[in-house]
């Protein structure tokens, strides 16, 4: 029997940086690219959803963590550190443990989803809640990595981008070529950087036999309360329900702008109500359950549709970055923000039938 071997082994020929590194893997990658009939009908395009919540720790971070931790192991590292809005810490903790390393994570106090927090703790990370936001945490993690014998595994580490670029290869492998448009949420901007690198290498003979004939337009979406790239200046107090992308000064800001400009794409923003509406639509029409940060790509697609900016019949891939179980509370609210109340019934079949409208 065969199973997916993780992105380092599956794409070894396209990851020269990893040559000679011990492979630390949990079988990440190989995630479903789901045809989205409801979103296609709604937008008049051919829409696909790349469900990155299906990675081992429930987010796309695993693609870059297998490579970052494998490179750290090659360098003989015993300890790693990262700043995180939650998913990076969950992934770093899991892969560091798998490699026999210790892991320290710096997270913004009180602003990370319970599922992510419990993963970091479950995998034995030393968790420090910083009295500050993600940008403060990243500043600290960078300084720690420079001054002490700990490897920084945030996406400023080039090995992270190498691993994450494999998602673009998977899309091409399934669709036979690059899509017209690729839509992503944008936080620290590592992922849009990685996809653009992947799509660019896929058409470039300098990186092996080309597997695509073209590159997509990259469409990135930030949350309105955390949209420094859209506004053109850092946001001091980023705020959004999408805590994963609550970032005011992205490390890969310039690379994200390059991806936008070289691809003829856009970086725009979506409001919290738009994010939550997209989150709801995705679970009720496509049966894909994501965390709010991930729904920013779908909210962006809908915003562009409402603005009449979706070319008819365009092939569009939307990456949804993290699983809904990471931060499940949002499904338990109505569109008006009220708590969903379960209907109570007795041990009585007629009562149950009545509650179901069958009686
Ligand atoms: N979606 C999710 C679910 C995320 O966790 C993140 C980033 C993003 C999108 C944005 O990706 O930063 O590459 O632009 N999470 C980081 C973390 C910051 O610490 O887990 P990006």
TrEMBL record:
The keyword Transcription regulation does not apply. Its cofactor is pyridoxal 5'-phosphate. GO terms for molecular function: L-serine ammonia-lyase activity; pyridoxal phosphate binding; threonine deaminase activity; threonine synthase activity. Pfam families: PALP (PF00291). The modification N6-(pyridoxal phosphate)lysine is found at residue 61. Its EC number is 4.2.3.1. SUPFAM superfamilies: Tryptophan synthase beta subunit-like PLP-dependent enzymes. InterPro entries: Ser/Thr_Dehydratase, Ser/Thr_deHydtase_PyrdxlP-BS, Thr_synthase-like, Thr_Synthase_bac/arc, TrpB-like_PALP, TrpB-like_PALP_sf. Keywords: Amino-acid biosynthesis, Lyase, Pyridoxal phosphate, Threonine biosynthesis. There is a cross-link at residue 143 (Isoglutamyl lysine isopeptide (Lys-Gln) (interchain with Q-Cter in protein Pup)). Pyridoxal 5'-phosphate binds at residues 87, 187-191, 321. Residues 24-322 form the Tryptophan synthase beta chain-like PALP domain. GO terms for biological process: isoleucine biosynthetic process; L-serine catabolic process; L-threonine catabolic process; threonine biosynthetic process. Belongs to the threonine synthase family. This is Threonine synthase. The lineage of its organism: Bacteria, Bacillati, Actinomycetota, Actinomycetes, Micrococcales.
């Amino acid at each position: 029997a065969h199973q997916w071997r993780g992105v380092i082994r599956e794409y070894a020929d396209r990851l020269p940086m990893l040559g000679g590194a011990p492979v630390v893997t949990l079988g990440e990658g190989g995630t479903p690219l789901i045809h989205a009939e409801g979103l296609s009908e709604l937008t008049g395009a051919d829409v696909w959803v790349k469900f990155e919540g299906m990675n081992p720790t429930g987010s796309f971070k695993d693609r870059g963590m297998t490579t970052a931790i494998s490179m750290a192991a090659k360098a003989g590292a015993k300890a790693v550190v990262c700043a995180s809005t939650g998913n990076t810490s969950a992934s770093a903790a899991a892969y560091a443990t798998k490699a026999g390393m210790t892991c320290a994570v710096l997270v913004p106090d009180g602003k990370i989803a319970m599922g992510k927090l419990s993963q970091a703790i479950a995998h034995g990370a030393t968790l420090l809640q910083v009295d500050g936001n993600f940008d403060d945490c990243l500043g600290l993690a960078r300084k720690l990595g420079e001054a002490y014998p700990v490897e920084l595994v945030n996406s400023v580490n080039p090995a992270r981008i190498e691993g994450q670029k494999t998602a673009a290869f998977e899309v091409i492998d399934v669709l036979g070529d690059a899509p017209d448009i690729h839509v992503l949420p944008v936080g620290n901007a590592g992922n849009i950087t990685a996809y653009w690198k992947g799509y660019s290498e896929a058409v470039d003979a300098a990186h092996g036999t080309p597997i695509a004939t073209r590159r997509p337009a990259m469409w990135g979406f930030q949350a309105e309360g955390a949209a420094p790239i859209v506004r053109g200046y850092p946001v001091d107090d980023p705020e959004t329900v999408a805590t994963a992308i609550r970032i005011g000064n992205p490390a890969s800001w310039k690379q994200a702008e390059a991806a936008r400009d070289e691809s003829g794409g856009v970086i725009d923003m979506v409001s919290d109500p738009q994010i939550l509406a997209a989150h709801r639509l995705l679970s009720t029409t496509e049966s894909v359950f994501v965390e709010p940060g991930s729904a920013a790509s779908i909210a962006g697609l809908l915003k562009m549709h409402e603005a009449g900016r979706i070319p008819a019949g365009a092939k569009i891939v939307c990456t949804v970055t993290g699983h809904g179980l990471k931060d499940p509370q949002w499904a338990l609210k109505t569109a008006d923000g009220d708590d969903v109340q379960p209907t109570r019934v007795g041990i009585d079949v007629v009562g149950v039938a009545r509650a179901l409208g069958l009686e």
